[in-house]
Amino acid sequence: MRTGPVRPLRRRLRSRTCRVGCGSQEVNDEPNVAPATAARVWDAVRALDYHIDLQAGSLRRTDGRTRTLGLLVGSVDNPFSGVIHRVIEEVSLRREVAVFASSLDDDPEREERAVAAFLRRRVDGLILTTAQRRPGYLGAIEGRGIPVVYIDREPAAVGVDAVASDNRGGADAATTHLIARGHRRIALLADRLEIQSAQARRDGFLDAMGRAGIPTSLATIVTELHDEAAARAALTDLLESHDPPTAVFSGQNLITVGALHALRAHGLQHTVALVGFDDVPLADLVDPGVTVVAQDPHEIGRVAVERMFARLEGDASPPRHLLIPTTLIARGSGEIPPPA
Amino acid sequence: MRTGPVRPLRRRLRSRTCRVGCGSQEVNDEPNVAPATAARVWDAVRALDYHIDLQAGSLRRTDGRTRTLGLLVGSVDNPFSGVIHRVIEEVSLRREVAVFASSLDDDPEREERAVAAFLRRRVDGLILTTAQRRPGYLGAIEGRGIPVVYIDREPAAVGVDAVASDNRGGADAATTHLIARGHRRIALLADRLEIQSAQARRDGFLDAMGRAGIPTSLATIVTELHDEAAARAALTDLLESHDPPTAVFSGQNLITVGALHALRAHGLQHTVALVGFDDVPLADLVDPGVTVVAQDPHEIGRVAVERMFARLEGDASPPRHLLIPTTLIARGSGEIPPPA
DNA sequence: GTGAAAGCGCTAACAG
DNA sequence: CTGTTAGCGCTTTCAC
Questions:
Q1: Do B82 and A79 touch (CB under 8 A)?
Q2: Residues of chain B with CATH 3.40.50.2300
Q3: Single pTM value for the model
């Protein structure tokens, strides 16, 4: 039987069990327990390999907390998401909070389903990446008093916490870096503009181009690039056009990899400049090294999870959007000058 | 109030609520409900944005299931783990099962804590990577009737399901590949031998060397390499020794990256051959391309999660260790011949 | 078809 | 300090 060995313990020891030893290994620091009683309970706990049922407890507990968090990331197999997940796990572990992780896949329907699944499991809080500008479930969640912290993308909804990269500023810096090397005919390879961060990066690109006084006719913007293959195909088209760009700004790590393949296939990796948004592994080992605007996913995760626990501990300060700075890492590809 | 809007619904509709509409969006296919009653309940459900409490339900449900799985991977920010996690999530999603994910970090104490945390949350099953040859908690779990499937590493314990790469065979193939190019002085850079998969790869390396009749004096084996920095330092030492290897077999993806850095720093990337175990991103874009023995984490995850659900559905066939084949991908670095 | 009642394992409140 | 009791939201069973 599944819960076989558990019931007898309770039968005999009743509430004593949980007043004494329940949490992890240590004694529940419940005061006013006689050493003899504690020992008796502990013997039983060990003899039966008793593990308290946290779920049952949350049902009756005053705060109703399940010591559980729902995390929705772009995809659990994306390295950017992985780093965020890891730091959230680490901070949660210290507080004996477990985390449910799900992948968004930039699918609003999947997002709704994931949030509903979290809610049915009574998570204490939600750390979410959203595919929507104005998530529809927000009202329902707020009414329930469950804190939400958005990561990676800032929803348009007012009054929610969000932690994201300074996408606009980072894209501006990347573009400015290329302009400073003398480029004017610069192509932006962007993800779907539905995605808030993709749009912010596009805006940053336009900021820099405008500030430099470069006419929009020189800026080629390709959007709706969601995977490596699409990016590769798009850049291949541009390179084979009658008036190819002298520099490329790729708006996302998969796009960067696709762009690298396209440049390599045309033997142009030392001719056409490239700056990518978000770092890619082994970027320093390819030739030339890939210049990127690196994000700081560890910091995004850390700030988000700390905000979450602050909210859970009663912080009622006004919700804020926190922007984590990006860092331009020059490795070679972004320093290639335009042809003389 | 947290559960504020939920109680009134129950107060009025009692058990009707859950006989009619609870699961996800669809009507619980409970038969024998009058359309009028169902409509009444559905109105209330929608009006209150009611979400059933799955946890509370599992408490009373006959099978006691929480529709929850515990997943312990090497680290949620490791790409190999990420792919496994993703396919497990995908299959679980279809069955409306949520997954708790944790990172092992090759720390036995962390492993014990993670398993205990899963148990306290009454997960239905455990998919585990282990840092131990003989996990101590196994007896306790078996008594509870919770299925366990090990991934990535095979514990020595008998009678448990496990799904892992054919580590020994893959390492043999990698080493044989180097020997076939004429190498005899081959270095193995290995992880901690405590880790079962690292040991299996070492055994495969020795299999191939032995079969080729290469004296062990020509095989340099460095073990206990757990991160990129250690691997880089170890290979640097070897390259600067009086009798450096002509080829390197790196036993793990972080070691491969460390080895690439060491070779590059010595300008030997076109001189010393390298084959890595486990694929690395952008391996085809560095020069030379990195020859690897690729694992199939997607298949490992798929087989593991399918075995898990089979067990949960009552499959009582004898536990098995399933080995997923590896694939040698020749990209250049492994085809460099020894100096004439 | 529908409603009422018991009880899952726990915590909270209170009586001894 | 210790034991008892009620009840969290649900599923199960049984009476209507």
A1: yes
A2: 68-165+297-324, 167-295
A3: 0.93
